[in-house]
Amino acid sequence: MMTRPQRRPPVASALALLIAAAVGTGCTPSASGSVAPGTPAGGGTKDGAAPVGTQEGDTVPELEKRLERLTGEQEARMADALADTKACHDLCSLSASICEVQVKLCDIADRHPQESSYQDLCREGQQECREAQASCEACVDEHQGDAVRAE
Amino acid sequence: MTRSFFTGERLLVPLVSVLVVVTGCDDGSASSDAEVRNADAHASSVGSAVKPDGTLKTHEIVPSTPTAEGLAYIEAVADVLRSADGQDGEARIATLRRGMALQVPADLPEAEILRLQLATRIAEAQLQADPTAARDQLAPMLDPKRSIPLDRASAQALIVLGDAATRTGDDALAAGAYARSIRMMSILREELE
């Protein structure tokens, strides 16, 4: 049976991380506020340029508010990932069924080698099977790519 | 993709075959093996006479606003399907037939899919012992001239019809049903992409 490592509650972890980051950088109070994601890199104060972006603050209420926002974003991304997984599962399940039925169809066509109506349906089934397999593989590949990027 | 059969149904076929041998009965309809053999002979003799019909007409089932009657019907069908899951053979078929006999309320387009699922389950239960009955159960509901719901349930019904037709030696019906099920599933796949 798999055991999960014990984890700190997400709120406590996030707060600890943010506080540690603020302390670790030794920033002055005016510069310690976090900047919203999307801020251009290199906007530090070394060259005298002012930070770009919205100051989110580092007080507990501000951090809690930020944590709430990030938690919401994480949930939305999880939901998107789950929807993608289900879509892939459905695509691959349909692909398996299409190819399974195509084999039955072509078995029947083999009994009617001189009849084009059977042969045409068999060829169409083989084509649909190939396309379905390709779309399943593409979905899985794309999903694996997403997972690697997320890591 | 056909549903696997319960052990009791798998046992029914050899049991019936033994009874046929013991009684000296040569009625092909009593044995699935005999059905398949007869089917092959039938197919080779008339197979080239009829062409498979892969025509597929579909319509989308738009979810309806739930009414009390509609919900009651859906729950009743769900009860029937649950009960049938715990039964074998004739008892299962009888239960599913009770589901088919339920009065369909007005303005419940989803009922078409539910009835197709019930008919498919009946045909699946009949497939081994009586493929002709299975075919006759589904063929009218899935006639190529009729539009059928664009749904995975329709695709499954077409596959079971194809399996039943294969067992009865109707290659044209089987090939048409399989081809239509592939087309249905391809449409569903394209919708997912």
Description:
The complex is a heterodimer of chains A (151) and B (193). In chain A, helix 1 crosses helix 3 (60-110) and helix 3 (60-110) packs antiparallel against helix 4 (116-150). Chain A has helices at 10-25, 29-32, 60-110, 116-150. Chain A contains 4 helices and no strands. Mean pLDDT of chain A is 72; it is low at 1-46. With 151 residues, chain A is an all-alpha fold. Chain A is rod-shaped and about 80 Å long. Chain B is mainly alpha-helical. Chain B has 8 helices and 2 strands. Chain B has helices spanning 7-23, 32-46, 68-85, 89-101, 110-126, 131-138, 152-168, 171-192, and strands at residues 57-59, 147-149. In chain B, strands 1-2 form a two-stranded parallel sheet. The longest helix of chain B has 22 residues, at 171-192. Chain A binds chain B through residues 87, 90-91, 94-98, 100-102, 104-105, 108-109, 111-112, 114-115, 117-118, 121, 124-125, 128-129, 131-132, 135, and chain B through 1, 43-44, 47-48, 51-52, 54, 152, 155, 159, 162-163, 166, 171, 174-176, 178-179, 181-183, 185-186, 188-189, 192-193.
Looking at this protein, list some descriptive labels.
heterodimer; A: 151 residues; mainly alpha; rod-shaped; B: 193 residues; two-stranded parallel ribbon; 8 helices; globular; disordered N terminus
Order of helices and strands of chain A: HHHH
The radius of gyration of chain B is 18 Å
- Helix and strand composition category of chain A: mainly alpha
For the largest sheet of chain B, list the strands in their spatial order: 1-2
Question: How is the biggest beta sheet of chain B arranged?
Answer: 2 strands, parallel
Low-confidence stretches of chain A: 1-46
Average pLDDT level of chain A: 72
Q: What is the overall silhouette of chain B?
A: globular
Mean pLDDT of chain B: 81
- Percentage of residues in DSSP E strands of chain A: under 5%
Low-confidence stretches of chain B: 1-48
Q: What series of H and E elements makes up the topology of chain B?
A: HHEHHHHEHH
Number of distinct beta strands of chain A = 0
Total of helices of chain A: 4
Structural class by SSE content of chain B: mainly alpha
| Assembly status | heterodimer
